[in-house]
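Predicting structure from sequence has reshaped protein science. With that in mind, we have picked out one protein's residues alongside their backbone shape tokens:
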Amino acid sequence: MRKTVFFLVMLLLCFCFIAGCSDEGKTSGTTGTETFNSRTDYSGVQGYRNWYYLTARDELSQSEYLIWDDVMCTWRTSKDTNCLIEPHIVHPGQLDQVIRAWEAPADGTAVFTTSLQRRPVNKNGIGQDGCFAYVVSGEDEADYVAELTVGALDLDKHNIDGEAVLQKGQMLYFVLNCNGNYTFDQTYWEITINFTRG
């Protein structure tokens, strides 16, 4: 009886070992798609999960890193404290665009879905002019992957979706511009990227 039990246990262990070996090296999912999310991946470290927190006054090629604020757990710029990034909120400065950028870990295709909504605004519209959101693959602002102008009184939720074929190290920039002035431009913007290598 003991020999039979011992034999069955050994057989079961061998089976588990062989099954484990056959799964070694596989990525999660059948397509090898990796998912990145701007809210759940949020961190006080530049580059964590391929996310970078930037600002640019003019050209994206001249973008600068935002500075991490340990007290507020917020990315900011020393030039304009209104220019900031939080887990689910972005706010441009008067002169500075605010940018959440994502770097491709390999050659592949990034399919992004985003949800954007301005926060509650002054109902009479005084002192506000909306904002302009756009997505660029690379530093050439002329090559928009997607764009959206949100009006001064627009509180609707918008989706900005698209895809881009990227090379390893290439950036996908999600940019919020104040569109004139930065009054009442606090904006909820959550981004999900499904990246397939190859």
Observations:
- The chain has one helix and 15 strands.
- The CA atoms of residues 24 and 183 lie 53 Å apart.
- Helices lie at 2-23.
